[in-house]
TrEMBL record:
<feature type="domain" description="Gfo/Idh/MocA-like oxidoreductase C-terminal">
    <location>
        <begin position="140"/>
        <end position="375"/>
    </location>
</feature>
<comment type="similarity">
    <text>Belongs to the Gfo/Idh/MocA family.</text>
</comment>
<keyword id="KW-0560">Oxidoreductase</keyword>
<dbReference type="GO" id="GO:0016491">
    <property type="term" value="F:oxidoreductase activity"/>
</dbReference>
<dbReference type="GO" id="GO:0000166">
    <property type="term" value="F:nucleotide binding"/>
</dbReference>
<protein>
    <submittedName>
        <fullName>Oxidoreductase YteT</fullName>
        <ecNumber>1.-.-.-</ecNumber>
    </submittedName>
</protein>
<dbReference type="InterPro" id="IPR051450">
    <property type="entry name" value="Gfo/Idh/MocA_Oxidoreductases"/>
</dbReference>
<dbReference type="Pfam" id="PF01408">
    <property type="entry name" value="GFO_IDH_MocA"/>
</dbReference>
<dbReference type="InterPro" id="IPR000683">
    <property type="entry name" value="Gfo/Idh/MocA-like_OxRdtase_N"/>
</dbReference>
<feature type="domain" description="Gfo/Idh/MocA-like oxidoreductase N-terminal">
    <location>
        <begin position="7"/>
        <end position="127"/>
    </location>
</feature>
<dbReference type="Pfam" id="PF02894">
    <property type="entry name" value="GFO_IDH_MocA_C"/>
</dbReference>
<dbReference type="InterPro" id="IPR004104">
    <property type="entry name" value="Gfo/Idh/MocA-like_OxRdtase_C"/>
</dbReference>
<dbReference type="InterPro" id="IPR036291">
    <property type="entry name" value="NAD(P)-bd_dom_sf"/>
</dbReference>
Length: 421
């Protein structure tokens, strides 16, 4: 099989620890040829790990994209508000592009990226990795078999996990919508994309409610300091006490969250970072402003209706879904790989256990990279799980949901997107 070569722009957690690792798992199919990363430690560490010579290491993505085209594709894994320019430059240069979600935080930029992909006849794939999971692929196939008759309603829940929410959306990079984007975009455009896919139709109307209720200064306990390590009297009773989480909670290592705190993960270095760094802050004294819970109601053009709930207040991170049809229902838990099909006619129940591979998003990251590299090996010709126009829809649905939440109104999505037909 042809080996696809890539340029990685942004060697952070998603770029370096999720997508680039495909080159290690399948070196005959995929190779990282160059890296652009402003952080010296990350860039040098990545270059050493992937045996990239100095001439192909860059601080600025503009440097690498100014050169004549020397690879097949570009992986854009920068921060949310930094995707637009490298994607556009890469498309103009003739590269196929894989872009981390969200593709942009601005409506106009999304539409320009969609237009550019068509104009330059290049693949622009957005990392909606859930479509590639064995779990959701199985549910999609059951719907296509009409095993529950005509689909009427979908009820979908994303339980973010109290610890994951505190790490990413209170202390972390996605805590402030002015610096990143609303949480319904940053965390949930995956879910809106899945609802689009399962409903098999475009959105017609959308409505949303939500707020930041708990992680606020007015909820800080008495005498709580600004940093956990500054003698907090509540350290034994607080589930968000940073040193205990980053050094003892298994998820900090399993999900590689500890690397956000420090590149060097020995306990002394981590404690040093927590003493004054962003991940050591009290969760009630951060500059966060994104919702800690939100619900979205969606009407699709084919009459299917869905409700989606996102909440920070769960013990585990997991997605749960219920699809209700005229002849039966499908219930599932993605992380457990469990699907239950109930038949209204016979009264029978079928339990399906879907194999859940190890790795990011229950193996979805690897599956997505497999399909992307196969597509690029064929110069973008072939069957795609999704194309950029569908990704634009799911992103715009997130923006429409946020507008609905802020202004307490129902959004006509066709009008919001600017379509004329």
């Amino acid at each position: 099989m042809y080996q696809v070569t890539a340029i990685l722009i942004g060697a952070g957690l998603r770029g370096a620890k999720a997508y680039a690792t495909y080159a290690k798992e399948y070196p005959a199919n995929f190779r990282i040829k160059a890296v652009a990363e402003p952080n010296d430690v990350r860039r040098e560490s990545f270059a050493k790990e992937y045996e990239i010579s100095d001439e192909f290491c860059f601080k600025d993505y503009k440097e690498v994209l100014e050169r004549p085209k020397f690879a097949d594709c570009v992986l854009v894994c920068t921060q949310d508000h930094e995707h637009f320019e490298p994607v556009m430059l890469a498309l103009r240069k003739g590269y196929h592009v894989l872009c981390e979600k969200p593709m942009s935080v601005e409506r106009e930029e999304m539409l320009l990226m969609e237009k550019a992909a068509a104009e330059y006849d290049r693949v622009l794939s957005v990392c909606h990795v859930l479509r590639y999971s064995p779990f959701f692929k199985k549910i999609k196939s059951l719907l296509q078999e009409e095993i529950i008759g005509k689909l009427i309603n979908i009820r979908h829940t994303e339980n973010v996990g109290f610890w994951h929410y505190a790490h990413s959306f209170v202390r972390g990079n996605w805590r402030n919508k002015e610096l990143s984007c609303p949480i319904i975009m940053a965390k949930c455009c995956h879910d809106l994309d899945i609802l689009l896919w399962l409903a098999g139709s475009r959105c017609s109307k959308i409505q949303s409610f939500g707020d930041l209720t708990f992680f606020r200064t007015d909820n800080a306990p008495n005498e709580a300091p600004k940093y956990c390590m500054d003698g907090c009297p509540h350290m034994e009773s607080c589930p968000y006490y940073a040193p205990r989480f980053y050094l003892e909670h298994p998820k900090a290592v399993e999900d590689k969250l500890i690397y956000a705190v420090s590149e060097e993960i020995d306990s002394d270095r981590v404690m040093e970072k927590l003493a004054s760094g962003p991940y050591g802050r009290c969760v009630f004294y951060c500059d966060n402003n994104v919702c800690d819970h939100q619900i979205v109601n969606i009407e699709f053009e084919n009459g299917v209706r869905a409700d989606f709930t996102m909440s920070a207040f769960s013990k585990e991170c997991f997605r749960e879904i219920l699809l209700m049809g005229t002849k039966g229902q499908i219930w599932g838990n993605m992380e457990k790989g469990e699907i239950i099909v109930d038949d209204f006619v016979s009264g029978s129940r079928t339990n399906i256990q879907v194999h859940t591979p190890e790795g990011g998003h229950s193996g979805s990251d690897t599956a997505m990279m497999r399909e992307f590299t196969a597509l690029i090996a064929n110069d973008g010709k072939g069957i795609r799980t999704t194309d950029v126009s569908v990704s634009v829809d799911s992103h715009l649905m997130a923006l429409a949901a946020e507008e609905s939440r802020q202004y307490a109104k129902i959004i006509d999505f066709r009008e919001f997107r600017g379509r004329t037909s």
